[in-house]
Amino acid sequence: MKNGLVTIGLIMCILSCEVKTDKAFIVITSPNGGENLSIDGVYNITWTGSETIENVKLEYTTNDSTWTIISASNPNIGSHAWTPTEASTTCKIRITDVSNKKVSDLSDSSFSTSSSTLRIISPNSGENWSVASKRNITWETIGTVANVKLEYTTDGSSWIVITESVSNVNSYTWTVPGTPSTDCKIRLTNASKVSIGDVSDANFRIGATVTDMDGNVYTTVIVGTQEWLGENLKTTKYRNGKPIPHASGWVSGISTDAYCNYYNDESLGLLYGRIYSWQAVNDTNNIAPEGWHVATDSEWNTLIAYLGGYNVVGCKLKETGTVHWRSPNVGATNESGFTAVPTGIVSFQGFNFGDTEANWWATMDKGATQVFFRYITSGSTVLVQLEYNYEDSYGFHVRCVKD
């Protein structure tokens, strides 16, 4: 009899353990606290639950008191796609067994929902992109945006589609169209909801390209009614292919057509442009690419007037920052897109002002008897005009203007 009681007790214990093991449960795995979900994005609510539960009810709250039904009866498959519709920092999910309200679970702590945002990084203000070049349009995404639409304008009002919908990877390689303009912007939107998006903060430029006799390719920049090369001339040949003599010993002075590189460093010549003697600039073989010419003194005056006058034009021409210019590079904004960099000069005294001055020749207008050059410095916003003294054998850089 005693053994029988022991056996019965063991059986009851086993049955009791089995009942406890089979007790119904639901455990939310996500969102379970700390997540930040984007409104209008699709998010998977996930959970684990007893196999005995057939259907579950899903709800959410944004205030810990009022509950809104997401699904009144959803198969207990461990996942349900949900699109949040309102912003809050105190959201929770509740999942309940439809047939037994006592079997339920809540998010352990609050999560957040907020609007998705897109922010253009580039081009966003002042960039100068050349026609037919491949450029990366880049942006930042906060929240969830699956696909984006990209458009551009060259007049500030009419928009042209780049792509109707592309996967959102925060970057898109764009072949720049053949429409030079100073009034370009990019518009980026959520492909499924156009109210979420961004537009370039300010205009960027699309410029044409020009190739010289050496094969150097230049981007152009439009300033007012003029179109300028966007960088200093680098050619070592005249327009007809005739070589311009290379004078590495210029430090002792020179009185013939010639070019050199700053400190006789070829890499600096390719980076900042070549330094030319007046005789090379004025040579009838023509130093400028086809369809272009070295800027005249009156064309420099037109540029200065358009940008506000001598006292402020320097800051609008200079490249910003101190990567190339010596600090403090006073007032530099480069709002013209001219991107003037310090280039230095060469004369009978040697090489000077490599990180503090940018200097350019200004050719003579018809009937003029004086030759001028222009320069700006890191410590000023003024563009200075000086008369050239032939006896000093100076060498300066060159900017060209379209014919």
Keywords:
disordered N terminus, 41% strand, six-stranded mixed β-sheet, mainly beta, 12% helix, single chain, 403 residues
What does this structure look like?
The structure is a single chain. With 403 residues, the protein is mainly beta. 12% of the residues lie in helices and 41% in strands. The chain contains five helices and 31 strands. Strands 2, 4, 5, 7, 8 and 9 form a six-stranded mixed sheet that branches. Strands 11, 13, 14, 16, 17 and 18 form a six-stranded mixed sheet that branches. A hairpin with a 2-residue loop joins β20 (217-223) and β21 (226-229). The protein starts with a helix and ends with a strand.
First-to-last CA distance: 119 Å
Global structural class: mainly beta
Low-confidence parts, pLDDT < 50 over ≥5 residues? 1-21
Helix tally? 5
Radius of gyration: 35 Å
Summarize model confidence as the mean pLDDT: 88
Range of strand content:
35-45%
At a glance:
The chain has 403 residues and is mainly beta.
Write the layout of secondary structure elements.
Layout: H1 2-21, E1 26-30, E2 36-39, E3 43-49, E4 55-61, E5 67-75, E6 79-82, E7 88-97, E8 100-106, E9 111-115, E10 117-122, E11 128-130, E12 134-142, E13 147-153, E14 160-167, E15 171-175, E16 181-190, E17 193-199, E18 204-207, E19 209-211, E20 217-223, E21 226-229, E22 259-260, H2 266-272, E23 275-277, H3 278-281, E24 292-294, H4 297-306, H5 310-317, E25 345-347, E26 350-352, E27 357-362, E28 372-377, E29 384-387, E30 395-396, E31 400-402
Parallel strand pairs: 2-9, 11-18
Antiparallel strand pairs: 1-3, 3-6, 4-5, 4-7, 7-8, 7-9, 10-12, 12-15, 13-14, 13-16, 16-17, 16-18, 19-20, 20-21, 22-23, 23-30, 24-31, 25-26, 27-28, 28-29
